[in-house]
From TrEMBL, chain A:
Gene3D superfamilies, A to Z: Periplasmic binding protein-like II
Signal peptide range: 1-26
Species of provenance: Actinoplanes aureus
InterPro entries the record matches: Bact_solute-bd_prot1, SBP
Entry keywords, A to Z: Signal
Protein name: Carbohydrate ABC transporter substrate-binding protein
Automatic annotation (TrEMBL), chain B:
Compartment(s): Cell membrane
Record key words, sorted: Cell membrane, Membrane, Transmembrane, Transmembrane helix, Transport
All copies of domain ABC transmembrane type-1, residue ranges: 85-296
Stated name of the protein: Sugar ABC transporter permease
Membrane topology: Multi-pass membrane protein
Protein origin, superkingdom: Bacteria
GO CC entries: plasma membrane
SUPFAM superfamilies: MetI-like
Amino acid sequence: MSIRPSRRLALAALAAGALVLSACSAGSLGTSDEEGTTTVSYLVDNEASTVKTAEALVSAFNAKNSSIQVKIETRPQGGEGDNIVKTRLATGDMADVFGYNSGSLFQALKPEQNLTPLDDQPYVGDLDPAFKVTVTAGGKLYGAPNGAAMGGGILYNKAVYTKLGLQVPKTWADFMANNAKIKAAGVAPVVQAYQDTWTSQVIVLADYHNVAADQPDFAEKFTANQAKFATTPAALRSFQRLQDVHDAKYLNKDFASAKLEQGLKLLADGKGAHFPMLTFTVATLAANSPDKIDDIGFFALPGDDAAKNGLTVWEPGGLYVPKSTTGAKLDAARQFITFVVSKEGCDIMAGASTPSGPFVVKGCDLPDTVPAAIKDMQPYFDSKATSPALEFLSPVKGPTLEQITVEVGSGIRKAADGAALYDQDVKKQAQQLGLSGW
Amino acid sequence: MTALDVRQEHGGRTSVAAARPRRVRSPYSYWFYLPAAVVYGALFLAPTFASFYFSLTRWTIFEHEFIGLDNFVQFFQEPALIKGFVNTLIYAVVTSGLKIVLGLLLAVLLTSQIVARGYLRSVVFFPVLVSTIGVGLTFTVLMHPDEGLINKSLALVGIDGPAWLTDPSYALLSVALVDVWKGVGLATLIYIAGIVSIPGEYFEAARVDGAGRLAVFRAIVLPLARPATVTVIILSLIGGLRSFDLVWAMTRGGPGFTSDVIASVIYKQYQAGFYGLSTAGNVVLFLVVTAIVIPLYGFLNRKEVDQ
């Protein structure tokens, strides 16, 4: 269903108009090259630690290469950022290197049409196969890892655990039993911060290792419209767990109005014992409560079977080169990416901000100085008890999950109803992607 | 506008209709209209018709596929939409109603002989001039359940204030109240203009007849300020139906879907990359606003003429 050139042109003009209207200047596109210097633009999102990491990488790279200058551009995060990336790709106006999600969001960029494959690059053999899958489309690899993997599970306060003599739970029943004891001791057992709505999804998403342990082919069937959250007991349980912690009154009092940083502070100060979270927030914790960071540990979201206990992993985002970058710029862009995934690049990234987990490049090890919560992830990797999150196995992810989980997690909607609503939501996404069977 | 004026205007309209056949030739050539027509056509007409077409397609930014009315079917099956639809109507009626009542009362107050009248008029109008997003963010802080100024003040007098924006049963109304605070100045201004234009003779005559303040308000101000009421209703109802910025700044439709309005549902579809679906939503919103406002406008104006 490709469209005729004239129409594409009109569409491009429309999109360009939208770009001007939304006042996002294309910035430096690196057109003029002075005396053999190639300028490469590098687009990253404007999250503070992303920018800091990018700046550290770029200044090290520019210092080493006199003939290539990399310039950073920033874009908003979230849905607005998605639209800017898509618009700039569609108009052939994309930066020479850009950072963007891997997995389902990567697939929505139509990689075959818009991106340059990186299959032939020297570092490809060193990449973790689990990561490679998430940046591959039509049998070709389009992305290099931008940063470290991260885990989804429970950040917990070890001081509270020591004081109450608790053990890290391996099953959901143990977890709820711990919660009962913690509540009796006057500490909020589970911290939630629904004012930052995305945080409400973590229990459901991080439970995917448990879903996969029960139904190994769930992702495949889910993509093919053969398995549903509402009708697959293991998947429905993810929503049920979110409802259970609310119904048992285990949440912090201000769960509805708290923001992520407030939630992290409750946890660091020992006013909350558990926080279902992604490990990239450990960097924020370390920055905001440096004296308490040693109190914070991490464990995978417990499931039903202690023997199958394991961690749900988010693969790092990718670095991509658009088709519109050619010639000397393309070579320079590839050199920059090669630098980022080198041992030196990893060390610079680990030094610029706290890594969210292990790197997915062979030879890149975590420094010993990383916080305990990050070290707690390593055993899961060593024993190979990890699963990628569903969004890396299936391109289907419904956009309103975070609103649904806020409702389920605040007692506005029941788990079964929420799961059914989510099934309807993913249908739209699947149709938009043009998947067969929907 | 007096009843007499209305009748004259009514009579005048018939004479214009009679005069239509021998219309005076415009002194300007049609070419003079071209620049305006090009701008209007390129920026308004073309996108409007393009949106009707794109509402019938499933499009990413890269390509599109014609799918007929599927987007509309999908949009009406959207569970958030039903909620958003009801919320929009509640929001429009609540804000519009409160703006009329409060605007009229404030206008009566601010047209009477009180001290610092000019100053008070500007104070009432001031919130209209402030950026909506700024107002939204400020009130989000003020309405914080534990640390907000509102609940802290209520606590001083022993009232345990609700969680204004995070309690599903209050969120929408809290936003509506802020909208009223922000928009009542405009309604007041329109009413002041309406009341001031009522000829002084009526008030004098009423006073001679021994009418009290309440009777003057009911028999003179209320009926003769009708054009102002019509304007306020139309403006605030349209504003309420397509309200988005304040809702987005304060709750983003949350918690969950509980304060979603049609415009925020559409925006979320757009954000999620469902461009065809959100275009269909905008077409629906356009039709709904038109379907409510045009008959209402006709109805309100007819009432005015009938008097």
